[in-house]
User: Which sequence fits this backbone?
């Protein structure tokens, strides 16, 4: 249908909906069944069978399968079946790990999906954009992504950027009237809003006329469906490590085979031993374990109210040295409350906190009511020039919209002004708020057809535009002493950490021009609101802990310098010698000069979103890794330029969320600190299981290589090596990825982003522990063998068990950078369970008679176990005391 040619009321009739009530729940359900979810089709997910088969594409696994085939052909059926079972079990483990990671990432995408504001059963509510259906009445504001194709029914200075559709980056001005022309292209349908395009200015409402693939964007998507999977810097590092390990493994395999054959061992046995050793040298499970560790860490972050949109942010979080944070809503409660009013040259005080409508207005200690001169008009105009709604949820009031607007609504309700008063007034025109104008205006017509302009905004913007002032006895010309009184009132409120908002009006003639350039002149200033958004209780502690971790917290706010300084001091963010810069100073300061003093600045006041980009660049040029928060569409460039872009989940626009790496579901500064702890911990856990896997592999290689060089029998048979690789590497390594952070994780400085995986002595730990594990297994083998070939299976069982137990004890050593004694071994219950499972499986292999011939084992006695445990504890205890 050509929706752009229809009047709005015709669209309503066609879709059986009204813009005053929206769809009913029943209609929504029916249309969801009829049209399906509002999403664009993407590439189909890889089938589970292909994911399973992919586990066997690894080069070393293919060699192992070839060796199994050879073993079968040579009649070694027991070995062939055992190896095949181990390969299959390893394949299933890899498959389940990959499935777990995919489910976690799918859940993450679902949680970070954009939302839409829709009218249903007469109530505005937020729903995931995928749940929008044809006929839904949607509300859009600057910074939003349009959730579906809509026929615009109301437009207030509405502009959208449609470059995704048309390639044209200039915004398109929208209106709500029908267009009679035929065969118009999408870019000319200026009364339509299109799915996934961006609202750059103004606000509006519309009726959804197309969802999913039945949108203009859907038609484009159907031509070319493509998805990209990005890898993190950490995954790149591990891929490089994998290539090195494969080269080393192949070299060792060749060396083992040649040395073994030279010493007279059968070629087949040496080939199988070499292949098994190569498989042991390469931690095939490492990429899967890393992915699972990242995805599980991301799930933990979600529980702590932080959604990671880009996995690379997990690694970068551990490097953050500066957090640049918005004040309002992030460091404060985001429940703006009117505490004072400056009116008729007097200060009035408003009681009550937050969004509770219980409260009164006082002059000194005397309660005043609506009859107080100019009080009712001031509060009424604040309620009319407003986009917020006061809602009730679970018995508590909350504001849907801007917190400042919410504060004005609550103040009006305290004076007894009901929201139904809106019906007596009609909005003729709106000049929306933006960060450059620092004001918002509405042309309003009352029930007597009288028109007037209401303007609210920053006092320093409205004062110069006001030639009149409202006094007890009516409107008077603004004199210099009036301006001086307002300036003093602003300073007085700022000293109390109150945010000031001025409100003015202007009577309009019926035929007066509504030209935006002249409307906001010759205003009559009514008064000032003094509002406070109290600091969040947990933020002060979070700032102190971040400071201990070497992370500087910086407050960025549009508030007055005095207000910002007062809040920063209360939060213990601003040290004695710390500097405060304002927007005017930033404008006149070259970036080179800002860079020289940036480390001394802790508060930026009266800044615009453009200043944020300058601040980010200055910190980065000083070598800092910067986390930057934001919520508005104009914050997106700074968020994108920062090392870790952080968007507000509650107040943030869809565009900001898309530019961000991290989304705070509760808009809370303390959540950033929790995310940094989790980010540091995830990286440390990945280092832990790399240390464990590689040290274990070094031990396995060394025990075989040294035995061959000493012309001794093989201490381990191939099937035992494979068993060690599966049982002692997989489960404990996975459990290390679930380890809680160490107590001093926020006592260390930020990690250098150029730091390699083996930095901070990890390489030495891997080699030294691995050598000792290999040596003790070899000594145990030699003591049991005593040069008697009849003792070979017994000696191999001793070596096999010593190696497994040494590795299972070593896993507890890997939990700390210090030593095995630094942490409670029972703290990680998953690790304890994994180790117990591995020990149980080891006992089955040793003592269950049907498995003994397969794994070349024999039952061991109490003395054997005493020898094994003494040797197994030696590596961890030795390095536990040496602390290196």
Assistant:
């Amino acid at each position: 249908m050509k929706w752009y040619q229809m009047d709005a009321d015709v669209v309503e009739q066609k879709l059986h909906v009204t813009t005053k009530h929206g769809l009913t729940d029943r209609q929504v359900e029916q249309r969801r069944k009829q049209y399906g979810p509002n999403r664009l089709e993407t590439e189909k997910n890889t089938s589970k069978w292909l994911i399973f088969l992919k586990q066997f594409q690894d080069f070393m696994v293919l060699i192992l399968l070839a060796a199994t085939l050879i073993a079968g052909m040579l009649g070694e059926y027991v070995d062939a079946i055992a190896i095949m079972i181990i390969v299959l079990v390893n394949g299933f483990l890899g498959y389940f790990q990959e499935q777990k990671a995919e489910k976690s990432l799918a859940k993450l995408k679902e949680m970070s999906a954009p939302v839409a504001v829709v009218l249903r059963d007469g109530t505005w509510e937020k729903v995931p954009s995928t749940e929008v259906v044809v006929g839904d009445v949607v509300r859009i504001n600057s910074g939003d992504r349009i959730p579906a194709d809509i026929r615009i029914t109301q437009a207030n200075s509405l502009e959208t950027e449609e470059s995704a559709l048309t390639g044209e980056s200039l915004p398109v001005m929208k209106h709500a009237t029908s267009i009679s022309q035929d065969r118009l292209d999408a870019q000319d349908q200026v009364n339509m809003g299109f799915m996934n395009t961006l609202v750059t200015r103004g606000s509006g409402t519309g009726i959804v006329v197309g969802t999913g693939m039945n949108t203009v964007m859907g038609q484009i998507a159907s031509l070319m469906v493509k998805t990209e999977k990005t890898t993190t810097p950490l995954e790149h590092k591990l891929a490089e490590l994998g290539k090195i390990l494969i080269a080393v493994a192949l070299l060792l395999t060749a060396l083992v085979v040649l040395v073994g054959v030279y010493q007279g061992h059968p070629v087949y046995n040496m080939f199988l031993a070499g292949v098994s050793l190569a498989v042991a040298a390469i931690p095939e499970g490492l990429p899967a374990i890393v992915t699972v560790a990242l995805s599980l860490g991301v799930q933990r972050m979600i529980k702590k109210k932080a959604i990671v949109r880009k996995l690379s942010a997990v690694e970068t979080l551990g490097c953050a040295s500066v957090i640049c944070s918005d004040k309002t809503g992030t460091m404060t409660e985001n429940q703006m409350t009117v505490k004072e009013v400056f009116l008729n040259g007097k200060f009035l005080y408003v009681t009550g906190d937050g969004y509770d409508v219980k409260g009164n207005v006082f002059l000194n200690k005397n309660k005043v009511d609506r009859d107080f001169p100019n009080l009712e008009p001031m509060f009424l105009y604040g309620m009319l020039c407003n986009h917020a709604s006061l809602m009730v949820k679970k018995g508590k009031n909350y504001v849907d919209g801007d917190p400042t607007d919410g504060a004005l609504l609550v103040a009006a309700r305290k004076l007894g002004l009901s929201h139904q008063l809106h019906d007596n007034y009609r909005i003729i025109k709106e000049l929306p708020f933006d960060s450059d104008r620092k004001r918002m205006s509405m042309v309003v017509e009352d029930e007597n057809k009288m028109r007037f302009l209401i303007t609210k905004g920053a006092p320093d913007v409205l004062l110069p535009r006001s030639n009149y002032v409202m006094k007890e006895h009516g409107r008077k010309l603004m004199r210099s002493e009036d301006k001086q009184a307002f300036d003093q009132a602003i300073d007085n409120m700022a000293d109390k950490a109150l945010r000031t908002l001025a409100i003015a009006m202007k009577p309009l003639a019926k035929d007066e021009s509504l030209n935006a350039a002249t409307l906001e002149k010759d205003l009559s200033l009514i008064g000032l609101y003094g509002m406070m958004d109290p600091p969040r209780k947990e933020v002060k502690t979070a700032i102190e802990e971040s400071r201990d971790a070497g992370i500087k917290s910086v407050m960025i706010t549009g508030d007055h310098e005095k207000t910002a300084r007062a809040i920063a001091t209360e939060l213990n963010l601003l040290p004695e010698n710390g500097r405060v810069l304002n927007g005017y100073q930033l404008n006149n300061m070259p970036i080179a000069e800002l860079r020289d003093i940036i480390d001394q600045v802790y508060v930026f006041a009266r800044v615009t979103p453009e200043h944020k980009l300058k601040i980010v660049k200055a910190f980065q040029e000083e070598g800092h890794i910067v986390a930057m928060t934001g919520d508005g569409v104009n914050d997106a460039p700074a968020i994108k330029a920062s090392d870790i872009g952080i968007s507000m989940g509650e107040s943030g626009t869809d565009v900001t969320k898309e530019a961000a790496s991290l989304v705070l579901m509760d808009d809370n500064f303390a959540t950033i600190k929790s995310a940094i702890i989790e980010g540091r911990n995830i990286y440390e856990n990945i280092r832990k299981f790399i240390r464990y896997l590689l040290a274990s592999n070094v031990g396995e290689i060394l025990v075989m290589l040294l035995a061959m060089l000493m012309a001794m029998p093989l201490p381990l048979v191939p099937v035992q090596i494979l068993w060690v690789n599966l049982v002692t590497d997989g489960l404990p390594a996975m459990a290390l990825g679930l380890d809680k952070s160490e107590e001093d994780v926020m006592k260390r400085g930020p990690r250098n982003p150029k730091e390699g995986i083996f930095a901070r002595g990890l390489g030495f730990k891997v080699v030294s522990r691995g050598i000792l594990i290999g040596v003790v297994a070899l000594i145990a083998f030699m003591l049991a063998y005593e040069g008697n070939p009849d003792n070979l299976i017994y000696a191999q069982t001793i070596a096999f068990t010593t190696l497994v137990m040494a590795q299972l004890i070593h896993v507890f050593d890997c939990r700390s950078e210090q030593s095995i004694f630094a942490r409670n071994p029972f703290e990680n219950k998953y690790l304890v369970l994994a180790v117990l499972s591995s020990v149980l499986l080891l006992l089955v292999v040793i003592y269950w008679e049907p498995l003994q011939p397969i794994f070349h084992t024999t039952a061991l006695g109490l003395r054997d176990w005493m020898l094994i445990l003494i040797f197994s504890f030696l590596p961890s205890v030795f390095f536990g005391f040496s602390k290196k």
Q: What stands out?
A: The two ends are 74 Å apart (CA to CA). The longest strand covers residues 149-161. Confidence is low (pLDDT under 50) at residues 224-230.
